[in-house]
Design a protein that fits this description.
Elements (H helix, E strand, L loop, with lengths): L1 E6 L4 H11 L3 E6 L22 E4 L2 E4 L1 H12 L10 H34 L5 H34 L9 H14 L9 H11 L2 H10 L7
Parallel strand pairs: 1-2
Antiparallel strand pairs: 1-3, 3-4
Helix pairs in contact: 1-2, 1-5, 1-7, 3-4, 3-5, 4-6
Length: 221
């Protein structure tokens, strides 16, 4: 039996969603973020970095979302059509599978960090922190995010999904950057292909079941 170590409002939603798509039995162990939004310390008993998601499967511990996705599809994915068959689509699939955490999430994390800088700075320096945050966001981070959003829009406008005309695990991987981005950048309603894609993935029964099983995931709104 697979155990998913699930932190609320986290990347772990994608793993539960994938398991639902695969039709694999699993258990969930729930963890709640601390007041500072970090994971609780007891996750370190599962993996030294204390991050989620982490899975256990027959004594094997796998961390990092992309690695977990590849592991689960390699072991349980036969006949589930979550990896494209065409060579061009396979190349796109591989790209988006790694792009999600390698390119998209670091940029969104910077947006989050600089957005929190004025709030988390000592009171006496908050005006300076706010000025720095605003300048860095406006001049460096926001233009890059806008560039990535345009890239997503053009790719999705091609044929509806990230790796081709059919849904794949690449769409599961990209769900967190896109849904997280909605909470940090005002683009909802301005990118038709992205909005159509979001509606399509959220309508999937496995996505809905993952919300029921996993619980708190505020990015699904």
């Amino acid at each position: 039996m697979i155990t998913v170590h699930y932190l609320n409002d986290s990347r772990a939603h994608r793993i539960v969603w994938l398991l639902e798509e695969l039709g694999v039995d699993y258990d969930i162990k729930q963890y709640t973020r601390r007041a500072d939004m970090r994971a609780p310390a007891d996750l370190k008993a599962i993996h030294p970095l204390g991050k989620s998601p982490v899975i256990e499967d027959d004594g094997i511990v796998v961390a990092e979302t992309g690695a977990i996705v590849e592991y689960l599809i390699g072991k349980y994915g036969k006949g589930r059509n979550l990896v494209p068959k065409g060579e061009e689509e396979k190349r796109r699939y591989s790209y988006w599978l790694h792009y999600a955490e390698g390119s998209a999430m670091p940029l969104l994390l910077l947006r989050l960090i600089f957005g929190q800088l004025p709030v988390r700075s000592p009171f006496i320096i908050r005006p300076f922190a706010k000025a720095i945050s605003s300048a860095v966001t406006a001049r460096l981070i926001a233009p890059q995010i806008d560039n990535h959003l345009g890239f997503w829009e053009r790719e999705l406008a091609r044929d509806g999904f990230f790796a081709g005309p059919d849904f794949s695990a690449a769409d599961i991987m990209m769900s967190f950057p896109v849904e997280t981005g909605m909470g940090r950048v005002d683009y909802h309603g301005k990118r038709e292909a992205i909005d159509a894609w979001l509606a399509a993935i959220r309508a999937r029964p496995a996505y809905q079941k993952a919300l029921e099983r996993g619980g708190a995931y505020r990015f699904a709104a």
